[in-house]
Amino acid sequence: QVQLVESGGGLVQPGGSLRLSCAASGFTFRYYTMSWDRQAPGKERELVARIGAAGTVGNYADSVKGRLTISRDNAKNTVYRQLNSLKPEDTAEYYCNRVDGNYWGHGTQLTVSS
Question: How far is CA 99 from CA 29, 39, 53, 57, 75, in A?
């Protein structure tokens, strides 16, 4: 059974940084492309960044380019998302996704506010 569990969300002040983690289980993690997506209140879910099985990074959303790093540790079955210079508009529920098969975690909330 595929499971994706996000963690690391919280309340952060503007200008701060936060790393989110997504622990995967139930499949051979190292074979799959993973992504981070987010959904802000009242908005559609959007792709934030994607990382291939071998670590090839792509598909950064324009809103996070230069501020976001997506990475993965295949030994730990975990994908990470580091977002710097946080802005109030980064406030959203952040979801981990296994692209093949469209599996989603339950999300973790990030709120950027002073």
Answer: 11, 17, 11, 14, 19
User: Can you read off the two tokens belonging to residue 4?
Assistant: 């994706």
Q: Judge whether 94 and 38 are in contact, CB under 8 Å.
A: yes
Q: Do 22 and 78 touch, CB atoms closer than 8 A? A: yes
Structure confidence by residue, pLDDT tens digits, 6-29: 999 999 999 999 999 999 999 999
Pairing of strands 68-73, 92-98: unpaired
Say if CB 89 and CB 64 are below 8 A apart. Answer: no
Write out the H or E segment, with its range, that includes residue 59: none
Which tokens hold the place of 50?
């994607």
